[in-house]
């Protein structure tokens, strides 16, 4: 039932059926609520597809993201998942609707101010993957005791693996176990570094594709 407002500029406000009437910026406004029956526009469909792609990307690795985006979340007064989702939906989706897809070279699974290292290599070995980097790399914000975070992401959702503490920066290499599968996996691989105090972290670095 509508409620009569007070004052010369007011009229009946409130809800009546599926219509809501209210004052907005000094003017009486009315709108319909409930399910939309009009055909969604291409921009709406594009946004929905981006949301679906981003959710499918991030959902399997929330445990990694909670560390990887935890610091940025606190800085922005948001949850780690909100920050991770916002970044990747804006930066890691390529193509045009309806053929949008994830660009794994642009995905971030961690985000921070720690300087990133270049020339990281990954290779398949017995029972897993070995990541190698320059242990002598030094610059402000980098410490030999920084911990290593590893990710082997399976886009087909059959075998994503990650470790939040796979070793130390000073070791120059780290091992990520991969469980044996009946069918080959195409894995997208990433590495991140985080300080021992967990107060500083690097952006994740895309290392490359590996068939396991």
Strand order of the largest sheet: 1-2-3-4
Low-confidence stretches: 1-9
Q: Structural class, from helix and strand content?
A: alpha+beta
Biggest sheet features: 4 strands, antiparallel
Q: What do the pLDDT scores average to?
A: 90
Number of H/I helices: 4
Oligomerization state of this entry? single chain
Note the beta-strand portion: 25-35%
Element-by-element helix/strand order: EEEEHHHHEEEEEEEEE
Q: How would you describe this structure to a colleague?
A:
- The protein has 212 residues and is an alpha+beta fold.
- It has helices at 42-58, 62-68, 70-75, 80-91; strands at 2-4, 12-16, 19-24, 27-32, 93-94, 101-102, 121-125, 128-132, 147-153, 161-163, 173-177, 186-194, 205-211.
- The strands form four sheets. A four-stranded antiparallel sheet has the order 1-2-3-4, with no helix packed on it. It has a four-stranded antiparallel sheet with strand order 10-9-12-13, with no helix packed on it. Strands 7-8-11 form a three-stranded antiparallel sheet, with no helix packed on it.
- It is elongated, with a radius of gyration of 24 Å.
- The N and C termini lie far apart (64 Å).
């Amino acid at each position: 039932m509508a409620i009569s407002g007070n004052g010369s500029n007011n009229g009946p406000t409130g809800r009546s059926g599926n219509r809501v009437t209210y004052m907005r910026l000094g003017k009486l406004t009315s709108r319909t609520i409930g399910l939309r029956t009009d055909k969604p526009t291409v921009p709406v469909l594009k946004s929905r597809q981006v949301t679906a792609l981003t959710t499918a990307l991030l959902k399997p690795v929330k445990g990694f993201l909670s560390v990887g985006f935890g610091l940025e979340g606190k800085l922005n007064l948001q949850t780690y998942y909100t920050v991770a989702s916002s970044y990747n939906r804006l930066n890691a989706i390529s193509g045009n609707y309806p053929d949008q897809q994830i660009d794994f070279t642009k995905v971030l699974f961690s985000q921070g101010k720690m300087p990133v290292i270049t020339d990281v290599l990954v290779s398949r070995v017995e029972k897993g993957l070995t990541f190698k980097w320059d242990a002598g790399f030094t610059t402000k914000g980098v410490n030999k005791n920084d911990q290593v975070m590893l990710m082997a992401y399976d886009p087909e959702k059959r075998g994503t693996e990650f470790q939040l503490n796979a070793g130390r920066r000073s070791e120059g290499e780290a091992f990520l176990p991969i469980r044996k599968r009946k069918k080959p996996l195409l894995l997208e691989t990433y590495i991140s570094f985080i300080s021992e105090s967990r107060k500083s972290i690097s952006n994740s670095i895309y290392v490359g594709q590996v068939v396991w």
